[in-house]
Amino acid sequence: MSLYRNTVWFLNGIHYYTRKGYEAAAKDFESQHLNVSVVGRSFMITGANSGIGKATAMAIAKRGGTVHMVCRNRDRAEEAREDIIYESGNTEVYAHIVDMSETRKVKEFAEDFKMQYSSLNVLINNAGCMVHKRELSADGLEKNFATNTMGVYVLTQALIPLLQKSRDPRVITVSSGGMLVQKLRVDDLQSDKGHFDGVMVYAQNKRQQVVLTQQWAKANPLIHFSVMHPGWVDTPAVATSMPQFHQMMGDRLRSVEQGADTVVWLALCRVSARSRSGQFFQDRCPVPAHLPLAWTHSSPEDVQRFMSQLETLAKAILSQPEEEHNSPMSATRPQFV
Ligand SMILES: NC(=O)c1ccc[n+]([C@@H]2O[C@H](COP(=O)([O-])OP(=O)(O)OC[C@H]3O[C@@H](n4cnc5c(N)ncnc54)[C@H](O)[C@@H]3O)[C@@H](O)[C@H]2O)c1
Predict the structure, then answer these.
(1) CA 80–ligand 1 middle distance (angstroms)
(2) Shortest CA distance to 125 belongs to which of 208, 61, 198?
(3) Does ligand 1 come within 6 angstroms of the Cβ of 232?
(4) Which domains are delineated in the chain?
(5) pTM of the full predicted structure?
(6) Which Pfam families is this protein grouped with (predicted)?
(7) 117 an active-site residue?
């Protein structure tokens, strides 16, 4: 089955996810959709110092939006912030330093943000990683899961009350077409059973983001949720995490602006928010979140089990006493399985 899924996915990718795929899709784009001013609206973008996140931040800043960049490294964040201010002429660009793999820090940041700001119109969960060796976060979670799933879950959950108070609120999560080869697995969220394959763990996390988006959409009708695939894009993440793929695809990879296009469209365009909440997008269109005949649909019980496990894990981490959390053992000990 996984050979079938991988083959269909790759053939799909060569056709649709490349630069040529973007150019073909873009022939149907309405050019005036992004001809908007978003002065007075605020946007939070994780991983905004590089690749798709930076291109998204730039596009929003150029249209007058207030941009909150959430980045791991202060120097890289400041450098990107200066570029965005210089090129867009918009000074409403702020850098917040948070490591999205550190669940407690993510929660602290979100709570501080809610105290400091009275509104947030759009949250863009873009930061992501593909770590090939099994490593644990400061909270004892497997690193890919901590960043791609738990970080997204805790940040979004914590900001939902603020988003709900704001006008035309939206949450966009940058997933990956790679998730199409994965069925949601609920028995090994920490990937500590059997052989560890970072590419498959990443793809599983990206499937989890799609499931989360569907569940959030059901539970929060006041907010428009979407999740998307940017295509295959020439970014530092692809160059470093998948060097062979990067080399093989070369010029066929999309530019960062092409990869960011659907994120920007989902974040800014009036029409995009009229679509049903909770859908998976590619090149400005909702597309199926499953390959045909791939048996990747989950039962409602599995989805429920996944959501309860996330909630339980988050509660366990966030209720840990500070001393225990800071103990040298906490970074190496698998506390949650
Ligand atoms: N490039 C592609 O072909 C492609 C394809 C599918 C999905 N994506 C997704 O697009 C998103 C953006 O990636 P990109 O390709 O632009 O790569 P990138 O390396 O340019 O950007 C990733 C960003 O995430 C940030 N990040 C990673 N771990 C973090 C952490 N723990 N805390 C805070 N920030 C963290 C990085 O610092 C960087 O700013 C990711 O979610 C990725 O999975 C990319």
Answers:
(1) 15
(2) 208
(3) yes
(4) 2-24+37-331 (3.40.50.720)
(5) 0.96
(6) adh_short
(7) no
